[in-house]
Amino acid sequence: MSKRIRSAPRKQPRQERAKATVETILEAAAHVLVTSGYEGATTKAVAERAGVSIGSLYQYFPSKEALVAMLLERFHQQAVEVLSDKLVPHPITDLEQEVRELVRVLVEFYGVNPRLQRLLLEQAPRIGPLRAVQELETRVESLVQTVLAQNLAFERPRNLGLVVFIIIRALRSAVWATVVERPELMGTPELVEELSTLVLGYLRPRAYPVTSSRSP
């Protein structure tokens, strides 16, 4: 018999009352994690904060890892919803303005409740890969690729899927590192400008062809 993954929810709420209970538990978990840290947080403390029995909590979340996993999934879902509004296919008349606006929205989103987001990002490796999060990232890549395919004519043949993959990973890594290591920079115009420059420098057609430095 395969072992149950401790970061997986035990069951999904179906009735409105059950959904409300799960919402309360998750809000309590976010509060306890921020105030007590990951190591100090316990499912008992979360249940007490939520005003539910520990048995009620375990009906939905078998462990602290499962709570963190669900908070991570919801966090990414909210990010996709925010970005989707900016990634509706449309003609791009000013690439710099479009990129800066997208980066600004992304930075502002990550700047909300940075203590919780820092904790979630730090604990993500402990939780392991989450299928829902991977599916959300794939959706973002698809949206970005659709917009670029309709608006950018590259000077040389490029693998657009790879271009988008690199952009998304570069932005994600830079923003996550800022949240964890330099949270005071979140939301600043300087961060938006530097990240925008990073993306624009990669997207713009090269003025000169890339030549190999290797001898023939």
From TrEMBL:
UniProt KW GTP-binding keyword:
no
UniProt keyword annotation of Metal-binding present: no
Q: Which residues bind DNA?
A: 42-61
Superkingdom of origin: Bacteria
The record's section on InterPro entries has: DNA-bd_HTH_TetR-type_CS, Homeodomain-like_sf, HTH-type_TetR-like_transc_reg, HTH_TetR, TetR_C_15
Pfam families in the cross-refs:
TetR_C_15, TetR_N
**GO function terms (MF aspect):** DNA-binding transcription factor activity; transcription cis-regulatory region binding
**In this protein, which residues make up the domain named HTH tetR-type?**
19-79
Q: Sorted alphabetically, which keywords does the UniProt record give?
A: DNA-binding, Transcription, Transcription regulation
Q: What is this protein called?
A: TetR family transcriptional regulator
